[in-house]
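ok, trying the design again with the full structure, not the truncated one.
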């Protein structure tokens, strides 16, 4: 058998940054009895295979109501289909009902999870060697991993404790252009971000859209957690405020319905003008990229999600009230547990997100893979090193951010397990914290 040198494989295979999520999965497999405050997946109790047949039948009934014959209905589910999918009308209606976003159904592309939507958007927008994408840092590794897979440079836009500052975007754009590179888009999660939990206030959302207009920059808005605020305060999607056509909206049914369907979507209603003056929507142009990736999103999976939307009256907010209440309770349980177990520890700090699945804990020690191994093996609790979300120093590489911070997820557990997980984490940190510096000495580095 031939031998292949690992260094000859693409960076997405061999680079430790790209392997960070695999590492978490491996740790979880090695310590299956550990409480996982690392997994950002939905709660298992909301999903049942008994629902699949019902959703399929609901969608077939919907197609029949639209006048499709039995032969047409079967062909739609059992054959190759439209590259951009057949849920455009239902998703467009959902966006109007839930978010106040009005786009034509032709602007909607149904994708194999939101991850494919990211790949398609990046590949379509970044056409030249000098093209780069900006991303809020810390950043979801799916975006940085997709860019690495495509050979596209990601330029970080540092996030402050209060979230993204639009003026920082202006500064980064200017710095990038000064080097001859072309910033094409900015990726962010404006509501309850993964991993930081930060959420942009309304005035900053409006200002960011102004900055995008001034800088001739597109925005890739990822919105997987917007339904799960701690309160009912309106947090409008950037796309709903977007009068200038700057926002490409990325969505997913993983959290609102269930992840196993692997159905996401991309909304790109920007006008594309050909050299002969012909105009099309960006989503239609990007279909060429999707056709070479997955041909089309599974029609059966689309039908399941279609049935869910039909039964929900095309409102994820209305259908998801029980889930929203559960995740609100879990986030409050996490924050309360952190106060109980770390409130008397002055060197331990954490943020208090207004919603979503995640919080960030700053600790007086290096929170790396070695400590995570110890945590799973000896203390029975798992978490995610925040260094994984910083491009320069993830997966143990020196020099990056987040080395003394961990991401905690509260979505997949019952509140009692969250409490026990935080108790175990507190024991780990007490046992492994670095000594406090002597009076007059600097903090440990």
């Amino acid at each position: 058998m031939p031998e292949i040198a690992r260094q000859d494989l693409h960076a997405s295979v061999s680079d430790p940054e790209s392997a960070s999520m695999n590492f978490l999965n491996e740790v979880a497999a090695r310590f299956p009895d550990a409480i996982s405050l690392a997994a950002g997946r939905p709660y298992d109790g909301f999903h049942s295979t008994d629902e699949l047949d019902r959703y399929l039948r609901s969608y077939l009934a919907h197609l029949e109501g639209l006048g499709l014959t039995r032969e047409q209905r079967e062909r739609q589910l059992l054959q190759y289909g439209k590259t951009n999918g057949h849920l455009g009308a239902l998703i467009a209606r959902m966006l109007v009902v839930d978010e106040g976003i009005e786009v034509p159904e032709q602007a909607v592309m149904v994708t194999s999870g939101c991850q494919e939507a990211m790949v398609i958007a990046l590949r379509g927008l970044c056409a030249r060697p000098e093209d780069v994408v900006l991303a809020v840092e810390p950043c979801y590794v799916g975006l940085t991993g997709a860019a690495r897979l495509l050979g596209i440079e990601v330029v970080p836009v540092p996030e402050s404790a209060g979230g993204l500052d639009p003026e920082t975007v202006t500064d980064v754009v200017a710095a990038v252009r000064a080097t001859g590179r072309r910033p094409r888009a900015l990726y962010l999660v404006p509501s309850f971000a993964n991993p930081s939990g930060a959420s942009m206030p309304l005035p900053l959302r409006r200002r960011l859209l102004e900055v995008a207009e001034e800088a001739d920059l597109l925005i890739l808005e990822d919105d997987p957690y917007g339904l799960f605020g701690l309160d009912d305060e309106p947090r409008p999607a950037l796309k709903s405020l977007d009068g200038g056509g700057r926002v490409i909206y990325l969505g997913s049914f993983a959290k609102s319905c269930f992840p196993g369907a692997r159905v996401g979507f991309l909304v790109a209603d920007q006008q594309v003008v050909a050299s002969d003056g012909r105009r099309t929507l960006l989503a239609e142009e990007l279909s060429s990229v999707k056709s070479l990736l997955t041909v089309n999103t599974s029609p059966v999976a689309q039908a399941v999600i279609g049935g869910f939307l039909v039964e929900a009256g095309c409102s994820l907010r209305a259908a998801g009230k029980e889930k929203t209440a559960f995740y609100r309770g879990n986030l409050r349980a996490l924050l309360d547990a952190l106060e109980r177990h770390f409130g008397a520890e002055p060197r331990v700090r954490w943020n208090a997100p207004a919603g979503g699945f995640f919080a960030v804990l700053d600790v007086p020690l290096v929170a790396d893979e070695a400590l995570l191994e110890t945590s799973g093996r000896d203390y029975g609790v798992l978490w995610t090193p925040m260094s994984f979300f910083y491009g320069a120093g993830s997966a143990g590489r020196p020099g990056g951010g987040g080395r003394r911070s961990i991401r905690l997820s509260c979505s997949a557990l019952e509140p009692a397990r969250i409490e026990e997980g935080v108790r175990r984490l507190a024991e780990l940190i007490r046992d492994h914290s670095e000594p406090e510096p002597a009076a007059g000495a600097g903090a440990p580095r």
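Keeping the full-length input from now on. Residues 392-399 have pLDDT under 50 and may be disordered.
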